[in-house]
Amino acid sequence: GLVTACRRVVSRQITAGGLWWVCSRLLCAPDPFSEVQAIIEAVEDDKTARSLTLALDPEATVVVLGWPPVVADALVQRGSGETLVVDASNEGSGLVRYLDGHRVDAVDVPLSGLGAAVTAADVLVVEPVAASPSGVLAVSGSLAAAAVAKRSDVPVWCAVGRGRALPARVWDALMSRWDVSEEPWESEEEVVPLDLIDIVVGPDGTLDASAIGSLVDCPIAPELFKADIT
């Protein structure tokens, strides 16, 4: 029953790396009930936002896309500096209101202004829904933003919260189930290659992008590789 339930969860949220992490841990645990508590504690103890806050220059202009929850928490904790919020997935305006409510200087940038916002910023921060040693899956627009940042010598940071970093086999299973072959420009997420990322921020601080594999704490549950048939 647990296998069927986990297959259904990931089948309905293919791109949610955190759910692949949760289901993998449950299926590989000797005692799933105890593992649930361990998962809750791990998520509540996630210090990625705090690590990002400490790593950012207090006065740096940061550009983000949509509403990345970990990055949003870090920006609130930082309190100073300007944030340029690109309205990806129609979520940017909501984040601007949220930041304004916490007295954080935020600017609502239309998607058409993505390139200009990136070149005007000191750092681009991307928050993926799933990450791997080969690339990260983030909100659509992130690939263009990272490419512009690279061309403009703007550092690209990637905030990888607890449970988002997946081993290669799990990442490959996710990618094989994620079908954007028909109209990829309509997808809500897209892959950003690791060579476009400079710094990775995890629960324990900053890392070179090539060390993203050290954040992987997800077991491999082959039961998830088979699609839900219902």
Present the secondary structure layout:
Layout lengths: L1 H11 L4 H12 L3 H13 L3 H8 L6 E4 L3 H10 L3 E5 L5 H10 L3 E5 L4 H7 L2 E4 L3 E2 L3 E5 L2 H10 L4 E4 L8 H10 L11 E5 L5 E4 L2 E4 L22
Parallel strand pairs: 1-2, 1-4, 2-3, 4-7, 7-9
Antiparallel strand pairs: 5-6, 6-8, 9-10
Helix pairs in contact: 1-2, 2-3, 4-5, 7-8
Can you walk through the features of this model?
With about 230 residues, the protein is of the alpha/beta class. It is about 40% helix and about 20% strand. The protein is built from nine helices and ten strands. The chain has helices at about 1-10, 15-30, 30-45, 50-55, 70-80, 90-100, 115-120, 140-150, 170-175, and strands spanning about 60-65, 80-85, 105-110, 125, 130, 135-140, 155-160, 190-195, 200, 205-210. The strands form two sheets. A seven-stranded mixed β-sheet has the order 3-2-1-4-7-9-10, sandwiched between helices. Strand 9 and strand 10 form a beta hairpin. The longest helix has 13 residues, at about 30-45. The model has no long low-confidence stretch (mean pLDDT about 95).
Q: Short description, anyone?
A:
The chain is an alpha/beta fold.
Radius of gyration: 18 Å
Strand elements, count: 10
The strands making up the biggest β-sheet line up spatially as: 3-2-1-4-7-9-10
Helical residue percent band: 25-40%
The secondary-structure element order is: HHHHEHEHEHEEEHEHEEE
Uncertain runs are none
Strand content: 15-25%
Keywords:
230 residues; alpha/beta; seven-stranded mixed beta sheet; three-stranded antiparallel beta sheet; 10 strands
